[in-house]
Fold this protein.
Amino acid sequence: MKLPPEQLALEQERTLRFYTQHKSEFSMMQLVLLRCLPGTGPKERSQAQEMLSSYLKDGQEGTPELRAMGSMLRTLLTDNQQLEAQLQAQGQKLRDEARRGDELKQKLDALVETERKLLERK
């Protein structure tokens, strides 16, 4: 179930306050999860990835289950970023092809009009 944007923003704000106060692995993972949900912007996903990279880079002792989950989430975020980049590239290619098609249609229409005028003269 997708949270409405307003509710998602409120939940992120509440979880960020809780994380800021307690600085626990669990609260950090909650915040990261919220920032990975559909409907979050690229900025939030980037922040989640930075938090995970920092968390996993630190050689800190931590809950093995949370570190494994963090590693999985970082992989998921990386894969999603790559897919989004591919989607944007394909979208741009599609727009370019549509523009090229429009240009060719205009040229064809101009040629047809020129041919029609030539035939009228004869």
